[in-house]
Amino acid sequence: MIFSIHQINKSALPWLRAIAAIIFTLGPAAAVGQTYPSKPIRIIVPYDAGGVIDLTARLLANRLSPEVGQLIVENRSGAAGKIGTESLSRAEPDGYSILYTSGPDLAVWQASPNSPTLVRNLTPISSAVSTVPAIAVRANLPIDTIGELLEFIRQNPGKLSYGTLGVGSYQHLVGEYLKQQGIVMLAVPYKGLNPVMTDLVAGQIDVAITNLTAGLPLANEGKIKILALTRSDRFEPAPNIPVVRESLPSFKVPDAWYGVFGPPDMPRPIVSRLASEIGKVLVTPEVKSTLTKLSMVAVAGTPEQFSGLIQETNAAFQTFIAAGNIKLD
Questions:
Q1: Does residue 75 contact residue 193 with C-beta atoms inside 8 Å?
Q2: 37 cis-preceded (ω within 30 degrees of 0)
Q3: What is the CATH number of domain 133-246?
């Protein structure tokens, strides 16, 4: 039966208008989900090429391409990841520009009262991998254990230097946390972890808060020494490397992980599609094997689980940011 507008009770008009709005809202979104993607997807990595973040971004891009089409990795480094991240935050939320970055760095920046509104409102898509952070020293430093390093720094505050990826980066905040424990070093900023490790090998800096992916090959060649991991327990594939808390029981910092974000207001169908495809790729035997060889583990989850991880990471860092009155801007 067909009614004209004049036959409809006026009290029903608000409901009809609401239903019409829902139809018009869902219609385009559903269409987007069915047709996406129809062109290459750009992955912005806000750090230098050649580092661990760049390496795993390219691993994901290669493995995702058969499922979602061509993915192009674009490095936009600088300011501890802020330059590339701000660029992504201004992109169209159509799913053709996404960000792959260090979760702890971004979570802390988002919590800053001075961070741009667009950056605070990035769309969480999926966590991807977790690294195994480590503390390494130059090969010719006459220190061989984490206990010796901590004691030397206590006795000689500010004498040793360590590399960071800028104010607010994971490396900087771990260094600031150590400072609160009486372990004071001189922070030296870099644009990426790769130049940090290059200068550590060359003896230009004394210490690097790095990870096993970047550090183990150099340590195996005798170019640096890995003294400890910053995680809560030892890493099974490298059981002989102790953790910092074995020598400093009060030491506790969040894990370092990388994740995928979209611009603000990204359509839910696109977010779900990308998160699903990322999750499928990370559990394949080939990718799991590659990550194990890189001393990394997969940490894929739903967008909701990813949001929870971001909040948990940020809350942990904010505790000692406040305790140390650390200025991030």
A1: no
A2: yes
A3: 3.40.190.10
Q: Where are the chain's structural domains?
A: 34-130+255-323, 133-246
Beta bridge partners, 136, equal 208, 226
Q: If you ran DSSP here, which 8-state letter would residue 255 be given? A: P
* CB 317 within 8 Å of CB 324: no
Rounded to a whole number of angstroms, the CA Rg of the chain reads: 23
Nearest-angstrom CA–CA distance, 279 and 260 = 11
Q: What number of CA atoms fall less than 13 Å from residue 168's CA on the CB side?
A: 21
The SS3 assignment for 183 reads: coil
Of 10, 196, 231, 201, nearest to 104 by C-alpha is: 231
Rounded Cα distance between 271 and 124, Å, is 8
Half-sphere exposure of 182 (CA within 13 A, CB side): 8
pTM of the predicted protein model: 0.77
3-state secondary structure of 134: strand
How crowded is residue 273: how many other Cβ atoms within 10 Å of its Cβ? 20
Rounded Cα distance, 68 and 64, in Å:
6
Beta strands 161-164 and 186-189: pairing type?
Answer: parallel
Query: Do 116 and 276 meet the contact criterion of CB atoms below 8 Å apart?
Result: no
Three-state DSSP class for residue 185: coil
Q: Which residue would you say has higher pLDDT here, 305 or 321?
A: 305
C-alpha span between 290 and 213 (Å, rounded): 11
Q: Are 277 and 225 in contact (CB under 8 A)?
A: no
Residue bearing tokens 């966590």: 127
Residue range 34-130+255-323 forms a domain whose CATH class is: alpha beta
CB atoms within 10 A of CB 184: 17
Q: Which residues contact 36 (CB under 8 A, 6 or more apart)?
A: 95, 269, 270, 273
- Inter-residue contact 311 to 318 (CB < 8 Å): no
Q: Which of 65, 68, 129, 67 is nearest to 101 (CA)?
A: 129
Q: How many degrees, rounded to 5, is the angle at CA 140 between CA 138 and CA 144?
A: 80
Question: Model confidence over 219-276: pLDDT tens digits?
Answer: 999 999 999 999 989 998 899 999 999 999 989 888 889 999 999 999 999 999 999 9
